[in-house]
Amino acid sequence: MRRVALTFGLLFSCAPDLRDDYPFDGVVAGDFLENKPDGELTLSVVDATNKEASIYIDLGTASVVGVGEGWDIAFQRFNVATNGGSSGVGPVRVAVIKDGDFIGLKQAPAEGYQQDGTGTVINTAEGGWYTYDLGVHKLVTREDLFYVIDTGEGFFKLKMKSYYDDAGTSARLQFWWGPVQSP
Predict the structure, then answer these.
(1) Could you tell me which of 74, 22, 31 has the C-alpha nearest to residue 53?
(2) Under 8 Å between Cβ of 82 and 124
(3) Taking 50 as the threshold, does the pLDDT of residue 69 lie above it?
(4) Which spans in the chain are helix H?
(5) Four-point Cα dihedral 102, 177, 116, 90, nearest 10
(6) How far apart are alpha carbons 168 and 97 in whole angstroms?
(7) Does residue 7 form part of some domain?
(8) What is the pLDDT of residues 92-115, one digit of tens each?
(9) For residue 91, what are the domain limits?
(10) Considering the domain boundaries, does residue 25 fall inside one?
(11) Within a 10 A sphere around the Cβ of 95, how many other Cβ atoms?
(12) To the nearest whole percent, how much of the chain has pLDDT over 70?
């Protein structure tokens, strides 16, 4: 009986790491942002699968940048930070819009902006951008929230779509976003 248990244990302890093709750890390099323009909005997919590194995005250029290169928003797994307050040295502020018309919003609100503090605005304000469904063990996007981001160089609206890509891979966040007029 011991021999069977030992053989069984050895078989499963030597299984290969199925995540070798993904940048779960180590240096972030490569194309970690895919933009799919659709009229006035863009659907973006950001690969935030790395357990330690953040992906920094400049909304003005719709591209990945380095931490010292004027980033606006950063993704690290389910954490979403903005470059202002406790998360960065930039001027970025966020207004949380609850039960608003994301598609219809054409002009940024004049007030209600805040910078990241003890938690990030997008992860903590109004309960954060997601809930956790214990029944299926998945992050579920809050449909009632979206955000207006003041980058100091322009205003953008952003609505989280999913924590998962179309294949179901976690930490491949999808979000809709686009420019809006100044208040």
Answers:
(1) 74
(2) no
(3) yes
(4) 2-13, 121-124
(5) -130
(6) 27
(7) no
(8) 999 999 999 999 999 999 999 999
(9) 36-180
(10) no
(11) 22
(12) 84
